[in-house]
Amino acid sequence: MDDETRARRRRELLEGRKRLPMYATRERLLRELEENETLIVVGETGSGKTTQIPQFAHEANLASGRVVACTQPRRVAAISVARRVAEETGTELGDLVGYAIRFEDVSSAATRIKFLTDGMLLRECMVDAELNKYGVVMIDEAHERTLQTDFLLGTIRGVQERRRGTDAPLKIVVMSATLEASSFSSFFHDAPVVYGRGRTFPVETFYVEEPEDDYLDAAMCAVCQINEDEEEGDVLVFLTGQEEIESLGRLLRARSKLANAASGVRRLHVVLLFAALPPEEQMRVFEPTPPGSRKIVLATNIAETSLTINGIKYVVDCGLTKQRIYHPRSGVDELVVSPVAVSQAMQRAGRAGREGPGKCFRLYCESVLNSLEPHVKPELLRTNLGGVVLQLKAMGVDDVLSFPFIDAPPKEALVRSLELLFALGALGKDGKLTSVGKKMSRFPLEPMAAKAIIAAANEGCGEDTVAVLSMLTTDSVFKQHERGAGGVREKNTAREQHARKEGDHVTFLEVFRAFQGCSPKRRKEWASSNGVHLRSMLKALDIFKQLSRAAEGEGVEMKSAGSATAPLLRSLVSGYFLNTARKQADGSYKTMSTGQRLVIHPSSILFHSAPEMILFNELVKTNRLYARDVSSIQPEWLAELSPNVFSIRKE
Ligand code: CDP
Ligand code: MG
Hints:
Residues 202-396 form the Helicase C-terminal domain. The chain is of the alpha/beta class and 651 residues long. Strand 3 and strand 4 form a beta hairpin.
């Protein structure tokens, strides 16, 4: 884009910006920020909090020449908002306005407005405990109460206290889309709250008469009906995860093709939106709807508050959400589909009333509403704290039980995390970080993954383990093909060709090696003929390079064990020993640590082979508990590689 086009675009955008509620509140916001060290801002989704307030702070030089940081719980939001603000300021992304997410930094010495995930800012705290680069830190989407946001709130309050009275005090802005702001205000010594005057239109809500047993089918009917009966306007459908979003996407596209021939109805322009989608694909939701068609956005709760999609007039809400739930006793995370909170149901409906009156179709009965929790439970109260505790220790917070969390996590979960870190060898008996623990804390990975890489040094397979973790860290490497009537078995050529009896991890390694061995020119073709996403593979390769560098920095040699697979699996066992299970007489599995029952997920290479003992990376709970990304391991490795683990087992 040349300078002139950029300037023209900037002027165009300014007109729209002036109409935003936050723009009208500009002077008030700046005055409050001048006078107070902390400010809480509450405003409807789409009112201009994220895109405008960082610009105001920068223009008024509130950061005194330092950087204005604005944190986001989601990577996609950090990227899309940075792009937008770069456009609004008429600058190239990475100059004045930049972003940083894990494994990707688009900022420079010139950057003064930086959007980053909360996790990234926490990482920066480990390197520079005073965050001296920043003059203003805005914590956005605070109402989501993600683990990293809560951890950041406690950390940043400490930074502010330490910088108070120096020549570089720190200003903090906490931004939230829900009215409940008192807990933030009292956490920051009764900081003032500014409410943006949002303007929203009425949204008419509809319910189903009787409970739907297949809400995917119900969602499809709702979309088709809206398309046939309702006037112009785009549709936003809330579903729980990637798999169902993809399958509804396929159904709707197929249906639209058929219907198109029949004429009369609008073409459906279907776009998908979930966290695992590559950022470039995620950006497609912002493209204008092609004339004569209706945009149908199929999204997870990502579209609840952190992204604003223009043109939405209809919302279809399945009423469910996928949450990561941690079992302190087993130390294992589970993904569980559960009903939304009332506040989420309202946010979802609200998406339909931003530009005019809208309609929200809830795929559940009105009576269900009474049984919903009023608010989302903070993630801190239901998730694995191992990573947080490791980071706290690395930041020099020895007594993690006294860390100022806005809501204290259950003591049991903290103690459990300390035990896990002890079992991993990250903490000594005195509760202090060991040299292994220090190394682990410097990897941008969960403690278990970091430990696997460090253990790989002893096994002589650093390169192999880093490759597998790079593949696991990359979302959706394998393309999903048509699903059979009843099952969800994926058919992936690469997976099948490279399938190894040892399981999914070795298969990941084989696919990675095959791709890495391809000349860059042939990669595209290789990806398409092998049923993998090129972009995901390139991402995995990039993560591999970054993790390799990090591993070498910690003294892990990048050696490969070649065709020997035991070293890789042993290094994984050293990290993921809690994620292991033994086969039972009925063919199901029982976890070694707590005796939870589970079965191997149909997407696994090992679905049909049922080895004696397995290691897995993830548990997914639907009607049953499924283990995903599974390998067959030797039972005797457990005692050898995790001698502490059974001593922390509580039956
Ligand atoms: O943060 P908040 O939800 O309050 O709003 P925002 O993200 O700052 O968005 C303000 C407005 O900018 C929205 O209403 C959109 O109209 C527009 N916007 C956009 O068109 N494209 C984006 N990528 C981001 C924002
Ligand atoms: Mg926002």
